[in-house]
Amino acid sequence: MDTTLLRSGLIVDGLGGRAFRGHVLLRGDRIDAILREEDATPETFDVVDATGCVIAPGFIDMHSHADWQLPLDNHPDLLSCMLEQGVTTVIGGNCGISPAPLRRETLGRLHDFASIARDEHFDYNWESFAEYLEQMGNARPALNLAELVGHSSLRYAGSNSARGRMPDEELSTCLDQLRRA
Asked: Which of 47, 86, 108, 123 is the most buried (most CB within 10 A)?
C-alpha cells in the first residue's frame, strides 16, 4: 500500500483546538496518523513538504445540488472545482429537490423542477431513495454524499396534487416513502 507523509504543515484538525505544526501520514486513501512536529516520523515512500501550507480535513458543502451531477459519468470533471477547493463531502437534497424518491408517472414534473439543479440529462435507474443511494455507493463518486429527502421530490413521487392539501391516501403514501427513505 502506498504511504505518503505530508511533512511540517500547519494542521487544523477540525476538533476545535488550536492549529499546530505537524505531519499527516497517509496509507492508500486514508489518514493513518496525525503527528506533532516533535514526534518521530515513520519512513515512507513519498514525502510532501507542506511547510507554509495548511493541512485540514475535507470541507463539507452544506448546501449543494451535486447530488444531481453524481449520477453522470462525467461527474468527476463537473465537480473537480469542489475538490480543488477542499470540499470532500456534499449535503444534497436541499431546496426540496432530491433525485429520489420518484415515480415514473410523475417523472416529467420532477425532471422539469430539477432543471434548476442540473443541466445534463441522465437516466433515472432508480425509484426508491434506497435504490438511489445504492447506485451512488456502487458508483464510488468523487465526493462523499449525505442526502436529504427533498419534500418536493417526495410529493412528486407520492401525490398527483401539485399544490395544496393532499388527499389522505396520497399523504399516507408520501409519509410511508419518507419513512422508508
From this structure: 47
CATH code linked to domain 60-180:
3.20.20.140
Domain boundaries, the chain: 3-57, 60-180
- Predicted local distance difference test score (pLDDT) of residue 117: 65
Consecutive 10-residue averages of pLDDT for the chain (181 residues): 91 90 91 89 87 92 91 89 93 91 80 70 84 89 93 88 88 93 91
Query: SS3 string of the chain?
Result: CCEEEEEEEEECCCCCCCCEEEEEEEECCEEEEEEECCCCCCCCCEEEECCCCEECCCEEECCCCHHHCCCCCCHHHHCHHHHHCCEEEEEECHHHCCCCCCCHHHHHHHHHHHHHCCCCCCCCCCCCHHHHHHHHHHHCCCCEEEECCCHHHHHHHHCCCCCCCCCHHHHHHHHHHHHHC
